[in-house]
Amino acid sequence: xKSVEIFSGAGGLAKGLDLAGFDHAAFVEWNKxxxxxxxxxxAPEKVYCGDIQAYDFSKLNxxxxxxxxxxxxxxxLGGKHQADMDRRDMFPYAIKSIEDLQPKLFIFENVKGLLxxxxxxxxxxxxxxxxxxxxxASYNTNWRSHLHELNSGSSKDFGGTKYRxxxxxxxxxDYGVPQCRERVVIVGVREDIKQAWCFPKATHTEERxxxxxxxxxEYWDRxxxxxKERPLLTPGISERxxxxxRDYILFAPEGKPWRTVRDVLSDVPHPSxxxxxxxxxxxxxxxxxxxxTGSCYDSSxxxxxxxxxxxxGGENMIRYPDxxxxxxxxxxxxxxxxxxxxxxxxxxxxxxLRQIGNAVPVLLAEQLGRAAMKLLKGESKAQVPDRLxxxxxxxxxxxxQEHRKELSLFA
Length: 411
Known about the structure:
By secondary structure, the chain is α/β, with parallel strands linked by helices. Helix content is about 30%, strand content about 15%. The two termini are about 30 Å apart.
């Protein structure tokens, strides 16, 4: 089945879909370094390096899926929070690609900040536009007026192809990625496709990790870590362990344990020794300060970041049990993002970390891809999604309950 990748970045989402069985027809990406990475890992002739506004989608044959991550800076908690006022907001062009290609399904990923209350109206507008990609705004009509038009009538009144829309906040750690990384995933299924989208079921839990570490000790035994070498517990973690011991007397928590930095890097030599790994180069100068303390070796990593506060600021670091810290190498950051070891990320350390930090974890992308493949082959069970409550009845999109459940849009 054919896929088109827009805002491809270094190709995390693309690699996951590749592993799920999709055949890439094209990649659209404007960053030259990211394009160089794509050309190293996929067919170079399929990579378009330029502005998506200038790309001619009409030259592509029928595609089954469009996937990508529209730039997150307009909605990032670390950005300027300007949403639609930010010139980097590319959601209108993501929607235009759906109008032009009319794929059977699309998958878009973005930052958790997209769900902030201050962006709620614009986010709802994005969902309504994705539901009706063939219903663009009239000339000189702003998005608020257009949203009113879209809400004023049934989608049956609008011409063109329509989509059933679902979104959910996913934590990559819940799917076997050794990183706490919360991202919004938006999926659209073309109206004529009778199969209903179902997000992959989470497979890993932090509770099970703490259980294996501090109830059975299986984690430490597996890694051969002596008691004196184990990290000290914070008061908060101690209370959680007490609760786990109380709640799981006879049985362990369901699921697999979250994967830790140690789980995926324990077999990797220290970057300062002679190892022969091209992108595993020691970088000195790591410093810890409030808000930038690094990723504890025996926990899932913090989010690999792409912005100025992430790469030079010191968040992309390992913190060992003895308190020592150092920067992740490019090779290690790839492991944290579940890229294959032989996947090539071009550019110097800072640029390579930026690309890795912008990427969708490959393992999560693969699971989303397998769910999409199952749906498109007609192998998923049809389900009736929940209706989205009327706007006036919706609570803040920041609430945990709203984050954790799948919502679907129907006019």
